[in-house]
Design brief:
Layout lengths: L1 E5 L2 E4 L4 E8 L7 E7 L6 E6 L5 E3 L7 E6 L4 E6 L8 E8 L2 H6 L3 E2 L3 E6 L1
Parallel strand pairs: 2-11
Antiparallel strand pairs: 1-3, 3-8, 4-5, 4-9, 5-6, 7-8, 9-10, 9-11
């Protein structure tokens, strides 16, 4: 299984970014997908998930600003981020698991991460 994330970068506070993750080596439609992030000096945290059925979950810190979506035909999962804040600065990781509870705690598969930096 390979998860290739892209779309990170440097943006000013209040700006937007869209992360995309291309998955390969798996039956994509059978997997629950998620995004985690890790800021410098902090623990990795769950940002958002989307189940194989399309149900979504968001951490309180991003609710109303981030939107997760998936395209089962393209094997991709995206994270649209608006109204970005400096505290959103982190490395963002795409994750996958066939068990939803595992995705929420300790996903089986991780991508390499993409850096998001929000300047004040």
């Amino acid at each position: 299984v390979q998860l290739q994330a892209c779309g990170g970068g440097l943006v000013q506070a209040g700006g937007s970014l869209r992360l995309s993750c291309a998955a390969s080596g798996l039956t994509f439609g059978s997997y629950h997908m998620g995004w985690y992030r890790q800021a410098p000096g902090k623990e990795r945290e769950l940002v958002a998930t989307i189940s194989s059925a399309g149900r979504t979950y968001y951490a309180d810190a991003v609710k109303g600003r981030f939107t997760i979506s998936r395209d089962n035909a393209k094997n991709t999962v995206d994270l649209q981020m608006i109204s970005l804040k400096p505290e959103d600065t982190a490395i963002y990781y795409c994750t996958a698991d066939t068990i939803y509870s595992s995705l929420m705690k300790s996903p089986r598969y991780w991508g390499q991460g993409t850096q998001v930096t929000v300047s004040s």
